[in-house]
Design a protein that fits this description.
about 250 residues; alpha/beta; Rossmann fold; 7-stranded mixed sheet; 13 helices; about 45% helix; disordered N terminus
C-alpha cells in the first residue's frame, strides 16, 4: 500500500503540473546538461574546476546575495529543523562553510561536527570561514564515504545531490552512515525556472520533487516533512526542495 504522504504529494503534483506534464521547454533549454553528455569522471573534474576556481571563491558571497545564508539559518534558529540533542552531525559538501556555521551556532556544544567536500580548496575556505577548531574537515567523495555504518544521528546535505547523475547513488551512501532514526536536512535544486538558472550557473542538474521523494523512500529515508524558508516561499512553491528525512 502506498504511504499517505506519498499519495498527498502525488495529488499536489497533479494540481501543480497536471497529469504527465513535462517541465517547460524553456527550463530544459536553460538547464546545464554536461552531466548527461560526459562520463562521471569527466564531469567530476569539471565540478572540481568550478568550485576550486573563481566561482567557488565567490560562493559565500553568492549565498549571501541570494539570501540562502540568512533564510537557511532560520531553519535552525526557528527549530524548523531542530538540532537539540544531536551528538554526531555530518555536513555534506560543506562548500564555503555556509551550513557549518549554522550548525556550530545552533547545535548543542557537545555535538561533534564532521564537514566534508570533494574540493580541497572549498574545505580550506570552509576552515577559514567558520574560524573554529571544533569541526573535523575531510576531503571525500559522496559516492565513497570514509565513515563507518551508522556513524551519524544527523546529516545536512545542502545542494550537493545536483552534482550526481543519480540521486540514489549519494543517498544510499548517506543512508549507510546514518544510524536508525537519524534525521537529514536535504536541500536540492528543483526542476523549475529558477532551478534551471541555478543549474546553468553551477554546472549541476535539477530534481523533480515527487521523483526524489520516491527515491528516498526506496532507500528507507522517510520523507518526514517539507520545509519552507518563509510562508511566501510555501505559497508560491519557491526556494527549491527542502525536506527533513528520517532513516527507518
Amino acid at each position: 500500500m502506498m504511504p499517505k504522504a506519498t499519495k498527498s504529494r502525488q495529488r499536489h503534483h497533479r494540481r501543480q503540473h497536471g497529469p504527465g506534464e513535462r517541465p517547460k521547454v524553456i527550463n530544459k533549454l536553460i538547464e546545464h546538461r554536461l552531466i548527461q553528455r560526459v562520463s562521471y569522471e569527466e564531469y567530476r573534474a569539471k565540478v572540481r574546476d568550478v568550485y576550486g576556481g573563481p566561482q567557488g571563491a565567490m560562493l559565500a558571497a553568492c549565498s549571501m546575495i541570494s539570501l540562502h545564508t540568512t533564510l537557511g539559518e532560520r531553519l535552525f534558529q526557528k527549530r524548523k529543523f531542530d538540532l537539540a540533542g544531536l551528538r554526531n552531525i555530518l555536513d555534506v559538501g560543506s562548500g564555503a562553510g555556509q551550513i557549518a556555521r549554522h550548525l556550530l551556532r545552533y547545535a548543542d556544544p557537545e555535538a561533534r561536527l564532521t564537514c566534508f567536500d570533494l574540493s580541497p580548496e572549498m574545505i580550506q575556505r570552509a576552515r577559514n570561514r567558520v574560524k573554529s577548531d571544533r569541526p573535523r574537515f575531510v576531503v571525500a567523495d559522496l559516492m565513497h564515504l570514509p565513515f563507518a555504518d551508522d556513524s551519524f544521528d544527523c546529516v545536512t546535505c545542502g545542494y550537493v545531490l545536483e552534482h550526481l547523475p543519480d540521486a540514489a547513488l549519494g543517498l544510499a551512501e548517506l543512508s549507510r552512515v546514518m544510524a536508525p532514526g537519524a534525521r537529514m536536512l536535504l536541500l536540492a535544486t528543483e526542476d523549475n525556472l529558477s532551478g534551471a538558472m541555478t543549474s546553468r550557473l553551477w554546472c549541476c542538474r535539477t530534481y523533480n520533487r515527487l521523483e526524489l521523494a520516491r527515491v528516498c523512500e526506496t532507500l528507507g529515508l522517510r520523507w518526514h516533512k517539507e520545509l519552507w524558508f518563509t510562508r511566501m516561499h510555501k505559497v508560491f512553491r519557491a526556494g527549491g526542495i527542502c525536506v527533513e528525512l528520517v532513516k527507518q
